[in-house]
Structures are given as C-alpha cells and as structure tokens.
Amino acid sequence: MATVTAATKNTRQQGAQRAQISQMPTYEWVALDKRGKRMKGSMPAKNASLVKAELRRQGMNPQTVKERAKPLFGGSGKAVKPRDVAIFSRQIATMMASGVPMVQSFDIIADGQKNPRFKTMLTDVKQSIEGGSTLNEALGQYPVQFDELYRNLVRAGESAGVLDTILDTVATYKEKTEAIKGKIKKALFYPIMVMVVAAAVIMIMLLFVVPVFAKTFKDAGAELPAPTQLLVTMSAFMQEYWYIVFGGLIGGIVALVMAKKRSVKFAHFLDRLSLKLPVMGNILRQSAIARFSRTLGVTFRAGVPLVEAMDAVAGATGSIVYADAVHQMRDDIAVGHQLQLSMRQTGLFPNMVVQMVAIGEESGALDAMLFKCAEFYEEEVSNAVDSLASLLEPLMMVILGTVVGGIVVALYLPIFKLAGTF
C-alpha cells in the first residue's frame, strides 16, 4: 500500500511539473550546430537566458532567441467544436485498439493539435489520468465538450473493460451526428443567405438609389404611378427613420432569441411550428428520428440501462418536441412498459420505426435494429437536403430577381409615362 501511495504521489508531482511547464512562455530559437548547420525550434522556459543555456548544453551556438508572439485576438485558441471531439475520439480509439497506452495516446494527439485551447484540454485530461482518475472522471472537467452522453458511454466501456471498442463506437456516433447536423445547416444556409442579400439590396436601393430618382421626378413635376409613389414613400421613411427600422429588426431578433431561451412554452411552440413547415419540417423530423435511433442504439450497445440512457437520448434529438416525448417514454419504461409501446403512444414515430423496435425487442437485437433505422433516416435526410438545395436555388433566384426587378420597373414607370407624352 505504501508503494502504491508513493507512486501515486510521484505521478501527481510529475503532473504538477508538466502543468507548470505548460504555463511558461514559449521561445522561438535559431542556432548553429557543431557543423555550422542552421537549426531552429521552440522551447518553453522562464526566460531567454535559460533557453540559450540549454542550447549550449546541447552543443549548439544560439543566434536568436525570442518569445513567441501572442495573437492579438483569440490567443487561447479557437472554440473546440464537436467535429474536433469526433476526430479526437477516432484517434484515441484507433491508438488504444493498436495497444498504445492511454497516457501516451493523449500525448501524441495533444502534440498534433493546432488549436491551443483543445491542446490544453487534452493535457489537463491526461494529467488527471496520471493522477489516478478514470477517463470518465477526467473528461468531466469539460462537460460542454464531453457531454453527459459521451461520459456515460466511456464509463460503461471502462466498467466492462471494452473501452477501445466503446471509443470506436463513440467516434462513429459523433461522426454520424455531425454529418447530419452539417446537412441541416446546409439546407438552411442557402435560403437564409439569399434573403439576407435581398434585404441588403433593398435597403441600399431605398437609401441611395431611389432618392436620386425621386428628386428627378420632383423636378420634372411628373405624376407618379402608384408603385413608384409607394417606393418613394418607403424610401423617405427609411431615410428619416432608418435607425428605428434597424433597431426594431435587431431588437425583434434579440427578443425572439431571449423569449425562446426563457419561455419553455414559446420554445415548444416554435419547435412544433418548425416541424410543420413544408419540406423543411420533414427534414427536421427525420433528423430527430435518426439522432434518437443512433443515440439509443449506441447507449444500449454500451450497456447503459435503458431508463438511465433516456435523458441523454432526449438531449441528442435536437428537438424540444421529441425530447419531451423521450422523457415521457422514459417514465413509461420505468413502470414496465415496452419501448415500442411507449414510442407508439407519442404519435411522433413512423410505424416502420416502431415495428423495427418491436422486432428488436423480441429478438434481442434492439441495438442492431436501431442502427438500421438511423442509417435509413440519415440517408433520407441526405437525399432530402440535396433535393431541397436543387429546388431552392432557382426559386431563390426568381424571388431575388422579382424583388429587384420590381423596384427597377417601379422606378422607370414614370420615365416610360413621360416618354409616351411626347
């Protein structure tokens, strides 16, 4: 026992020393080796003198030593994205499956990180493991990047002694969920950008182009057609009260976001509304079903109890409506109902999904059936997004052309009218 305690103490001291080194400034150096060859590199140290002394000890002649400049913005690195976590999961799963020790795996992955923030996170996790923590406990330092579902799966893998297999499953899960999120973003990005561009064009024309024409019409004393008069009136209003328009627009967006965050009922209403949208609502619904199926399949295969897994599954659906349904299903399962019966009661899952879950429960292959459902709906989302993109492109062009063309026609109507009088 004394030997184990001493070893643990030494490990913690080594971890503390590494933490101190990671907090030191990094110096870039250029030196000549014994053959006169120019060498360069970087080294953490308290000051430049220590760097020079270390280089001389290695038989090199220091030429320049300067502290690495810190970037003006984002000095701590970019935010750690879910994609970064997915790549990390795949890397560590591959290394552990190849027999590389966990601590060494973290060292290798951290050294290859270009994002300083993620590198620091991985170093902290590694030091916690060296100090005697389990991987699940060490990842708990960063609950945002490694959420409850991720940690629960890791804990199940550690308990069953199949951590490398579970990490591989988690890596696949993260990659699939990020892929489907990317598809949804792709579906939303194009129409939103077209609408933003259209709004910007309209604002520019109302503020800068229409006033020039309005002055010309006024000087000519021409009687303006109704479309042109409406356009001139809108332009005059924008010039006089532009700050109210922009302030109201920004305030409306902020109020909408805040209301969604603070009011559960309002957020629920918006989510239900989004699921009823034509085309887009179907994509969101299929996406929620795909996430539900894959997440529940992963947790079930990892050995996480079904009732316990439901909270994590609810958060992974990406939909408040489906999250509420999963919570209701959890309560039903807790009192002895079958999963397929609970799913049917919600009225949110297609009959095919319910039937496949029923077959999975009866045959003891629930995880396999859930993965098949996930793959089917992920493919459906992918195809629907591709079809939507091909349909939206000409539609958005028509809308943009109609808006801009309508403004141009309205501006030239009085000119055509004046030309007809001669």
Automatic annotation (TrEMBL):
> What does the sequence similarity comment in the record state about its family?
Belongs to the GSP F family.
Provide an example Pfam family for this protein: T2SSF
Recorded superkingdom: Bacteria
What residue intervals traverse the membrane? 188-214, 241-259, 395-415
Protein name stated in the entry: Type II secretion system protein F
- The organism named in the record is Dyella nitratireducens
PANTHER family found in the cross-reference section: GENERAL SECRETION PATHWAY PROTEIN (PTHR30012), PROTEIN TRANSPORT PROTEIN HOFC HOMOLOG (PTHR30012:SF7)
What keywords would UniProt list here?
Cell inner membrane, Cell membrane, Membrane, Transmembrane, Transmembrane helix, Transport
